[in-house]
Each structure stands twice: as structure tokens, then as C-alpha cells.
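Step 1: inspect the first sequence and its C-alpha cells.
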Amino acid sequence: MEKGLSSITTSSSKEGLPLTPHSNFKTDSTDDDLAHILFNIKTSKTSAIINYGASWCRVCSEILPAFHRLSNNFPKLSFVYADIDECPETTQHI
């Protein structure tokens, strides 16, 4: 299984996740990407669900497919996956 998610995208490189998820599912690859995603959510006043995880964490990898399914079931919410190792400055207090 590939462990990392890369770039702000609506497609996923994680095994088991569809390649064309809803546009409300976002991933990041840098602190700047995550800050941009969070800024857009804040300015749009859209409610967001953020899943903080790590590519090396087995439990995080097991949760991610269910998190993605939730994004499909709730298209009016924003769903964000943030890898704590890829965004250390933004997630340092998690």
C-alpha cells in the first residue's frame, strides 16, 4: 500500500480510495498547502472535518477509507486529510 498523500488534490493515491472522490475531499503535501486549504474553508464559512494522520500509522491508514466514504455521504461539508509529517509547522500542536 502506498503510504503518502501528495499535493492538494481531489484524487487520491491511497490504495482503496476512488480516483475521483467528491471535490469536498482535500489532501495536502506541505504546510503552505494545508494553510491554503484551511484559509479557503474559513473564508467560505463551510464546516470542515479534518483527519490528522501519519503515513506510517497503521490505524490512520485504516481510518482513511471510512473518512473518504463520509466525504461522499456529506457533500456539503469539507473533508481534509492532513499528514502530520508533511505539515509539521501547521500540525505541531496536534
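Step 2: inspect the second sequence and its C-alpha cells, then contrast the two.
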Amino acid sequence: MPSYLEVGMVTIIRVFHKYSGLKGKLKKAELKDLINNEMNHFIMVKNETLDELFADLDQNGDLEIDFKEFITLIAMVTSACHDLFIPVQSKNTYA
């Protein structure tokens, strides 16, 4: 049976490919849809913010977000939200 972490990793991969399709890369509109549909409780983007975010993520400058670039977003949002879910006094306690 897979662990919670493994299930989470598979979910991230599946969600990415749900929006990127067979090409395995996200255009700006696809990234916006993914964020608005799948991450809307953790991050909200407006068009101006999306332009900046997309430029920051697109490390190779190809105007698309590949999986490695997408994982950067996941890591940033997860890190920013960490303390909301694990209060300081219980960081050593796991569910």
C-alpha cells in the first residue's frame, strides 16, 4: 500500500498531466486554469501576478512550464502554507 507521501506525489503528477496533456508542458492559460481549479485555497493569481509567476517559473525561457518548473511552484506554495497546517507547538506530531 502506498504511503500518504507517495499518493501525494502521484496526485501531483496526474494533475500536471491533466492540464498539460500529452505535450507535458503548460502554457500560461493552462497554468492559470490549474491554479484556479486545483490550488485555489492556497494561491490566487490575477493576470498581472500570473505574468510574473510564469516568467519566474519558466527557467528555460520557452514560454511553457515543464514538470520540473511546475514542481518549483508546488514547493514554493507548500513551503509558504506549511505553518498554516502544522502549528509551531506540534511540528513533531504527524497525523
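Step 3: confirm your contrast with the notes below.
The beta strands are 25-26, 65-66. The mean pLDDT is 90.
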